[in-house]
Design goal:
By secondary structure, the protein is α/β, with parallel strands linked by helices. The protein has a single domain (about 20-170), classed as Rossmann fold, CATH 3.40.50.360. The chain is about 40% helix and about 25% strand. It contains five helices and seven strands, in the order βαβαββαβαββα. Strands 1, 2, 3, 4, 5, 6 and 7 form a seven-stranded mixed beta sheet that branches. Helix 1 (about 35-45) crosses helix 5 (about 150-170). About 45% of the residues are buried. InterPro entries: Flavoprotein-like_sf (IPR029039), FMN_Rdtase-like_dom (IPR005025). Pfam families: FMN_red. It comes from Streptomyces ambofaciens (strain ATCC 23877 / 3486 / DSM 40053 / JCM 4204 / NBRC 12836 / NRRL B-2516).
């Protein structure tokens, strides 16, 4: 893939924790299919690009991520399939577990997300936007929403999403 450098100039809106020299990007995902796996791998590749220093990337399956993970992170990248017109049950469970414990402590932090659906992702996008708005998180990059098999441009957009979120957590 050809890597674009536009992410270097993008900085997320919102307040990140600056308690340490190394920021943490928490990637919370539900990855039940090869298409979701390809998108996750592209996001992680972008977030861990060698040009981005000072960011620790933590990956958690949605059913394993905890409120402590969320509170210890400076930004969030969420990934889900679209299931029956909604985000996956696993990502919904994650939000149910962390919503109130993290409500006050994470307001203003940057986030981004990607969604994969067989034919439509509208409901999943709407549900993620609704919950993250309630949490007061600030979207730091356009969402990546893919219906059908992800193509080269879709995977590049996932790479950019990961790079943008990670680069936005750096001080430079």
């Amino acid at each position: 893939m050809t890597r674009r450098t536009g992410w270097r100039s993008l900085r997320p809106a919102g307040a990140g924790r600056q308690a340490s020299a190394v920021a943490t990007l928490l990637i919370v995902h539900h990855t039940p299919s090869p298409n979701c796996q390809a998108m996750l791998e592209s996001v992680v590749s972008g977030a861990t690009a060698p040009e981005i220093e000072g960011v620790r990337v933590v990956r958690r399956a949605a059913l394993a991520a905890t409120a402590v993970d969320v509170l210890e992170a400076d930004g969030y990248l969420l990934g889900t399939p679209a299931n029956l017109g909604y985000m996956s049950g696993a990502l919904k469970h994650f939000f149910d577990q962390v919503y109130y414990p993290c409500l006050d402590g994470t307001r203003g932090r940057p986030f981004g997300y990607y969604v994969h659906g067989g034919s439509d992702t509208t409901g999943a996008v709407r549900s993620i936007e609704s919950v993250t708005t309630g949490l007061g998180w600030q979207r730091a990059a356009p969402a990546v929403s893919v219906a059908g098999e992800p193509g080269k441009a879709d995977l590049e957009a996932c790479w950019e999403l990961g790079a943008t979120l990670a680069a936005g957590l750096t001080d430079d």
